[in-house]
Amino acid sequence: MTSPGWLRLTGIVLATLALLLVEVLFLPLRLDGTALPDVHSFPLPVTIVLPLLTMPWLTRAAARVAPILPVAGAPLIVWLLGFGVLAAGGPGGDVVVLGDVRTVALLAAGTLPAAIALGKVLGTAAVERGKAKTDG
User: In principle, which of 5, 8, 13, 90 could form an S-S bond with 94, CB 3.0–4.6 Å?
Assistant: First the structure.
């Protein structure tokens, strides 16, 4: 991989980490009258939508750098590792990730679309390599 490729992949990984932080830190958002209108403290996990849109996009962007598993899967791997770090308890027992269904929904929204996009990218690359072998 060339130098510009490494630079692009680094940017993609940093964007993945930044988006993960936003997704996790704003997950407990509620309509409680503090920052948003008061609607009986109804939970509003709008950040679950964010990984549904961004993780497939980041996976395809990484695959454009190089359509191989370690490169194309880098956003998914980094997202999962970062999520695991945030879910682990800190030295005082503090945990950033919630212990309810919103966390499970965020985990699914971050991993499933990215895994589907990764499978499609790697499958397409394998078919193209197979065609190149039979043509050459």
Answer: 90
